[in-house]
Amino acid sequence: xxxxxxxxxxxFIRLWKATTAVxxxxxxxxxxxxxxxxxxxxxxxxxxxxIQVSFAKAPDAGELRSTLDKAGVHGAEIAQFGSDTSxxxxxxxxxxxxxxxxxxxxxxxxxxxxxxxxxxxxGATIVRSETxxxxxxxxxxxxxxxxxxxxxxxxxxxxxxxxxxxxxxxxVIATAHDILGTLAFIKYLNLExxxxxxxxxxxxxxxxxxxxxxxxxxxxENLRKxxxxxxxxxxxxxxxxxxxxxxxxxxxxAATLVALTFLGGEVxxxxxxxxxxxxxxxxxxxxxxxxxxxxxxxxxxxxxxxKKGGVGPRPAKESGxxxxxxxxxxATR
Length: 333
Known about the structure:
- The chain has 333 residues and is an alpha+beta fold.
- It has ten helices and six strands.
- Helices cover 62% and strands 11% of the residues.
- The chain is elongated, with a radius of gyration of 26 Å.
- The two termini are 46 Å apart.
């Protein structure tokens, strides 16, 4: 049988200081930028009109915008969609959305008429048209947030049932780390937040949690087998034992997502990017967030001697040892 990374003895937890610094350097600026500028929401959440147009010849973007302005559609977002003859027009101006809600002529019809007059019936073909009212957009945004919150609380309930509280708290904080990191990632790339992106975030939560649970299952098994082994060493052992499985699983998943990113088209690309980041941050948090947190919790609130699976804190570092310091904890008892 083909095996990789078998019987490794990597000391993962000793890097907790460096990984914490990396996490803060990535998250804090992204979340601060998010607080200042917010997200770029799709028409599914704001209301508006989206039209995909295919032109016989590549149009001039300035001329296209001038045509829309003359038709009364102001402030529309115009962007290429793949080739230089395919464009997406987003009309999310609040005044246009409000007019549409009162029953006025739809923005889609206004845009279609203006394009036909300027480029001819065969010069501009409407490939796709979507219209969402402001009320529907608001409801979709509310339901998307509810879906994310429900998934998070279901995760909490599952962890409370599956593990004892020490494992559960560490896994929940690691999952929260992944959510915040993904929110920062979306802002850094300025991805348009649509239902597809929300679906990517929900999928990422499940994927990340699955990896953490696999490592914690191995930790729980080793706690029963090696009750006297220091938890520091036991955690490292458990991560190393699950490393071959993690590498194979995450590599194949990432390869598929890379293919979708470059070959899946504009519609599926945001989902693939969010999931690709989810693979990275989920692996990172399972090793460098959940495991050190479990160690810190165990040393801060140690188990009573003799309890099933109980282990004491790792002995003090021997002189001459090359291992780095453990995460800061309360004084051992």
